[in-house]
Amino acid sequence: MNRKLKFDLNVETNALLCPNPLEWYAKAYISEDIANSFRTLPGIKYKTKLATVEFNNILKASTCNFGTTDESLDAIDIDVTAVSALGEICRFDLEQSFISQEMAKGSNGTFEVASFMSYYWDTMAKEIHAEIAEMRWKGDTAGATGTYLDLVDGYEKLFLADAAVIDVTAGIVTAANVLAEMAKVVAVLPAKLQGRTKDLRFYVSSNVAMAYRIAAATGNTNTFVTEALPLSYIGIPIVVAEGMSANTMVLTLKDNLIYAFDGEGDSTALKAVNLEDSVAEPKLRTRANIKVGFAYVNPSEIVFYS
Q1: Higher model confidence: residue 172 or residue 117?
Q2: 44, 91, 154, 175: which could form a disulfide with 260 (CB 3.0–4.6 Å)?
Q3: 257/40 Cα distance (integer angstroms)
Q4: Rounded mean pLDDT, 44-65
Q5: Phi and psi (nearest 5°) for 98?
């Protein structure tokens, strides 16, 4: 005997305001180029330790006796900073915007528009991604900009404070000198890394990347007119580091630069609240709580042009 079951599903209004939380946080935290250019550590709630081990002179002549080897075991602290992305929009602003025709009729009707909220969350995720990119390089907790750059220390500050990082004095990079300046960076790369071109990454600021494109295209009509060639320098992939200070470059193994974030439990923190339902204010308030942190290992393998 077959039975037909019928049931009703009541969906809360607030559920309609939120995007798919897992997809949304993925857009805010990471992208394909991030995963391919940095060592990512997800699921960090507060602090964690990352073990490092270095072996030296471990090959010995074969004998019956066991000789000691030279190795060093260490661990670095990986910390993340909790920050919140806050947004608020007023009903009256929406009523005077391009989506007014999609809103419910009447001055007191619902003003949540699904198509607009999809656009709203997507734009918010892109802005978070852009601000994290800038914090990644220029963040400084000792700064006084009054912006998100004061929330966490970025790579540029961390590298400048570490005497073990290999420093190269920067100049004004142009299309005329960019190849020579990049050669200066490669020239001081430790010999043990010079053959690992697939694992190395050349992180460059946007103005350096543009200068390189122009220099590489000189004499090559194909790149001027029809298509852009993949960015690489002597076989080393070039990463356009959005947010990096102008005339700045970093050359190192991609696994030496660590990007830590939470992400796993953040889906429950994605909030969209209609304040008309609580305090009678015609506002839609949104909040996303995230955690980010930047660290590095093996400073003697990092070349910093600044």
Answers
A1: 172
A2: 44
A3: 9
A4: 63
A5: -70, -10
- DSSP character for 193? G
Angle in degrees, 0-180, between the axes of helices 178-187 and 206-217, rounded to the nearest 10: 110
Sorted by where each begins, the domain ranges of the chain are 14-55+68-305
Mean pLDDT of 168-183: 95
Q: Domain 14-55+68-305 - what CATH class?
A: alpha beta
Q: How far apart are CA 53 and CA 72, in angstroms?
A: 6
- DSSP labels, 97-109: STTGGGSPSSTTS
Give me the DSSP letters along 212-275. HHHHHHTT-HHHHHT-PPPPEETTEEEEE-TTPPTT-EEEEEGGGEEEEE--SSGGGG-EEEEG
Q: List Cα–Cα distances, 202 to 155, 166, 184, in angstroms.
A: 14, 14, 13
Q: Which helix (H) or strand (E) holds 287?
A: strand 283-296
Distance CA 249, CA 204 (A): 4
